[in-house]
Amino acid sequence: MDVTAALCTLDRSIFAKTGRHLSSLQSAIFYGAWLGQKYHDIAEAYHCSDAHIKVVGAELWELISEVLEEPVSKKTFRVALERWENSLMSAEETAITPSSLSLPAARVASAKSDWQFPEGQVKLDSRFYIDRPPIEARCYQAVLQPGALLCIKAPRQMGKTSLLARILHHARQQDLRTVVLDLQQVDSKTFQDLDRFLQWFCAMVTRGLELPLKLADYWDELFGSKICCKDYFASYLLPQLKQPLVLALDEVDEVFQYPEIADSFFALLRGWHEEAKNSELWQNLRLVLAHSTAGYIPLNINQSPFNVGLPIELPEFNAEQIGALARCYGLDWQATEIERLTSMVGGHPYLVQVALYHMARDRMPLSAFLRLAPTESSPYANHLRRHLLTLQQQPQLASVVEKLAAGGEPDLTSLDIFLLDRMGSIQLRDDRVRLRCELYRQYFRNVH
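RE: above sequence
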């Protein structure tokens, strides 16, 4: 049982028992204690006093004791958890028929009713969400800081929205207000004019807070849209709240396609973050920006929100995390199986989960899945065709991908990189652009 799987299993059990997830600090203590760290080391890493860590640690061991129904301490919790896990597995394996034991981890596989097809946000209480330490803990801690700004970057289907949902859930548990806006849902007409866009922005936040809309009281074209928008937040929205507000903006790279809007809007957000250094009012606003790529428009370094605050770049799953997810599907995979899958799809969370879901559901051998993966009969067929359609509608982009699939190094414009990075079809390494994985290389050899 590895630390990631243990933390996920425990957190789900605590949520089922109490309706609350582990806090970021509790998760950090669990993670550090599992790895043999001392309280002092954990305290230094998370900028807390030793005494505070000991208090939170004591509460954590008491909570784990309740779930395991036996007393545990920092020294004994790991052994107790492993014993508890084994006892659960043994108890459930005796209750299932021999025919269902073809997968080694039958305890998990028998619970197919909660299997979620890998599409969209992973539900808050889903056991199929895999933490990528220390990212979650850092985000949970950062969003509670006055005037916080978090920038979460990753291509599509890498888990941004699922992480965003957990950050907001954690904030609500700490009695913060939350509003989330998906900018991908904005009508293109709204992006045609800065005044229209900022009024829409203010109106949607007002709606999320369930407050009366009072734009007419604060909007005067004499002062300009940015001043009016700031005044609406400073004089109306923020003073109405009795607790801090976490404002999360998902898919913010939609704005990158409208340079005039982007320039002003991102400068406005950066300005609000800077205001929080000297204003208690603006300290009550915490911003979380989730985007697929850095965009292809040059933002003034002193006006961009993407080079301040806490930058979070979601990595692909590592072997340990893929192994933990495989066990959620009842697959008792060893290093060899994980290596064979990653040789085809890398550690891309969506591609990995699709593979595990279908192999577990259809009892498909790994070798058969890998042969099928880059074909039109693949479980990836819809995903690949969607990318193919995008490329066929943009011949220049299709030509670039075809050359990359053949191992070439085509000349790429900043727009090419933006679009391909946003799709998640490329990786940027050592100033070189490459297709993300073997699956894409095989499938996109002949785009036209």
